[in-house]
Amino acid sequence: MFNLFKPAPPIDRLPNEKIDSEYKKLRLQVFLGIFIGYAAYYLLRKNFSLAMPYLTAQGFSKAELGFALSAISISYGISKFVMATISDRSNAKMFLPAGLVLSAIVSLLMGVVPFFTSSVAIMFIMLFLNGWFQGMGWPPSGRVLVHWFSLNERGNKTAIWNVAHNVGGGVMAPLAVAGVAIFAGMSGFSQSGYEGVFILPALVAIVFAVVSYFLIRDTPQSVGLPSIEEYRNDYPSATKKTFETELSTKEILFKYVLNNKWVWAIAFANIFVYFVRYGVLDWAPTYLSEEKGFNMNKSSWAYFLYEWAGIPGTLLCGWISDKMFKGRRGPAGVVFMIGVLIAVLVYWFNPPGNPTVDMLCLIAIGFLIYGPVMLVGLQALDFVPKKAAGTAAGLTGLFGYLGGTVTANALMGVIVSASGWNAGFTLLVVSCAIAAVIFALTWNVRGQEVVKNQH
Question: Mean of the pLDDT values across residues 200-218?
Answer without folding.
Answer: 97
